[in-house]
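User: Before I run my own analysis I want an independent prediction to cross-check against. Here's the chain; please return only the structure tokens and, at the end, one sentence I can use as a sanity check.
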Amino acid sequence: MSERPVLDAIRAVLKFKDTATISEISKYAGMTHKQVLDVLNTNGHMVWRNRKNGHITKVDPRAVHRQQLVESDRYYFRESYGAWAHEGYCLRFKGHDDLRQSLESKHWTGGLGDSWQITKVEDTPENRAALEAAGLKLWSEAEADERLWREPVRPAQREA
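Assistant: Structure tokens:
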């Protein structure tokens, strides 16, 4: 038996169909309807539902964890910059204001008559090394997992 029978049942049904019902999930998970509803209500922020008919259309516990990781001050991101076209790559991160001020450079972007000055942290090996020395990690190396999904109840023994 799986550690997360409701999550596994939802994924199995959604792999085959566009929506999953409570009845289908409870049948595949070997749980009662109430137990499945309790698990879904506990993890409601990770479950996408059609509000008209109650069908589940998507489940993504990793997205919530990724959002928490993004909001933490532990990662930096590689982004492109430019006014109307790609001009180059820069690094974006939250917090660490003193480090940002030491690495930032000013740059004019735009065209004749329509230009402005931006401040950015250039994507260079030296800047990446400075960010990593400060304890930041590259976002693409982050591991988002399903640790936030909670299934407090165990499957009930169903009588045939």
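Sanity check: The two ends are 18 Å apart (CA to CA).
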